[in-house]
Specification:
The strands form 2 sheets. Strands 7-8-9-3-10-11 form a 6-stranded mixed beta sheet, with helices on both faces. A 5-stranded antiparallel beta sheet has the order 2-1-4-5-6. The chain has about 250 residues and is α/β, with parallel strands linked by helices. The chain is globular, with a radius of gyration of 18 Å. The structure holds adenosine-5'-triphosphate and magnesium ion (MG). Adenosine-5'-triphosphate (ATP) binds next to α1. Belongs to the ABC transporter superfamily. It is found in: Cell membrane.
């Protein structure tokens, strides 16, 4: 079943067409890697899915509900209900610096969902263990490495039990030696059949972990397919050129 259905999604910044009638589906348990050159619209596409952008045209359906239809987002209450099914992990972590790791994890479930403290505490403990940070619950983000911060951000996103996780270049702000520990956590999530969309420059990760790869260029999805096809036998010259550049 398609959990995300995007059709003819369009977005302009003034004269600049950033997304040009983009159409794609994400099915349950898919791991979709989105690749493409800088400025091709990857972040804008992802941010549109969680209403961090306004759009000019097209439809976005999540789990069968219209988040946006014919270029207009639904009413605020519906947006909130639909976007709560998605967890987002950003390039720059976006942790709250004045809150401890544990408080970062527990804030939204307590404030937004009003969940009982004992449930929230149990889950934050489990998720910190899952991302390999059990001992760091009471530490402030400033005391963590970039890789640790990003693993906290992933645990925080998981606290809301999202049906889909969205990642926007989760390792691009990290030193190379810290990239692996974050990709390892993401790989584990994929093995547990978490549905994910991952905008990434990590071609190795896309090849190994993604069930499908979307190649974007100039506001369009040029082609998509399983990694073993797209990487070894791309159909379009633009994909070939991008890959020959990126796989060097
Ligand atoms: N707030 C904005 N105002 C005007 N133009 C914008 C804005 N945000 C993005 N753009 C433009 O939209 C286009 C797509 O940007 P986007 O950030 O989605 O690309 P991207 O594929 O994520 O690139 P990168 O790989 O560098 O992150 C770019 O040309 C960018 O300059
Ligand atoms: Mg981007």
């Amino acid at each position: 079943m398609a959990i995300i259905e995007v059709s003819d999604l369009s977005k302009r910044y003034g004269e600049l067409e950033v997304l040009k009638r983009i159409t794609f589906d994400v099915h349950q348990h898919d791991v979709v890697a989105v690749i493409g050159p800088s400025g091709s619209g990857k972040s804008t596409m992802l941010r549109s899915l969680v209403h961090l952008e306004q759009i000019d045209g097209g439809t976005i359906r999540v789990d069968g509900d219209d988040l946006a239809k014919d270029g207009r987002y639904s009413a605020p209450r519906k947006i909130k209900q639909i976007t709560s099914k998605m967890g987002m992990v950003f390039q720059h972590f976006n942790l709250f610096p004045h809150l401890t790791v544990q408080q970062n994890l527990e804030l939204a479930p307590k404030m937004v969902k009003g969940e009982p403290t004992t449930d929230v505490r149990r889950r934050s403990g489990e998720l910190l263990e899952k991302v390999g940070l059990s001992g760091r619950a009471s530490v402030y983000p400033a005391k963590l490495s970039g890789g640790q911060k990003q693993r906290v951000a992933i645990a925080r996103a998981l606290m809301m039990n999202p049906q889909i996780l969205l990642f926007d270049e989760p390792t691009s702000a990290l030193d190379p030696e810290l990239t692996g520990e974050v990709l390892q956590v993401m790989k584990r999530l994929a093995e547990e059949h978490t549905t994910m969309i991952v905008v990434t420059h990590e071609m190795g990760f896309a090849k190994e972990v993604a069930s499908r790869v979307l190649f974007m260029d100039n506001g369009q999805i040029i082609e998509s397919g399983p990694p073993e096809e797209l990487f070894t036998n791309p159909r379009f010259d633009r994909t070939k050129a991008f890959l020959s550049h990126s796989l060097k």
